[in-house]
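Revision sheet: C-alpha cells.
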Amino acid sequence: MARPITDHDREQVRTLHAAGKSRNEIARTLGRSPSTVSKIARELGLTFDRAAEVAVATEVRRADLAARRATLALALQAAAEQLREQLFAPCTVGEFAGRDGDWHETHLDRPRFTDQRQIIGAVQTAVSTSLRLAPAEGGEGAEQVRSMLGALGEALQQAAAHDDADDDGG
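Predicted:
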C-alpha cells in the first residue's frame, strides 16, 4: 500500500522546487516516485516546465557554436594565406628513382605546375569552407576575400603561362 502524502512531503517538494531541483531529483531525495512528486506539485500549483531555461541554454549554445565557427573560419583563412604563399616560393622535391630506388632531391625556384594546382585547390577548399562557416557580410571583409580570390586566379594564370613557355622551350 502506498505511503500517504504528508505536509512534510509537500513542504519538501515546495522547498526543493524553489531551489531549482528537477522532478526526478526531488523524487530521489524524498524516496517517492516521480508521479507522486508531480501530483504534490500540481496540488501546490507548481510546474516542472523548464522551457524558458531550455530556450536560454539553447541560445547560449548557439552563440557558442557561432563563435567557434568564426574562430575556425579565421584559422582556415590564415591557412589559405599560408598555402598561397607557397605558390611561388622555392621548394625541394624528392623522389625515389633509378633501378636501385635511390632518393633524389631537386631544389626548384617554385613548385611544379601540378603542385601549384594542388596548392590552389587546397586554398580554394579552405576559403570556401571558411565562407560557409562564417559568410562574408560585405564591406571590408568581403573585399579582402574577393581580392584574395582574384590574386589566386591571377597566380594560376601566371603559372599556366609560365609552364606553357617552359614546355615550348622558352
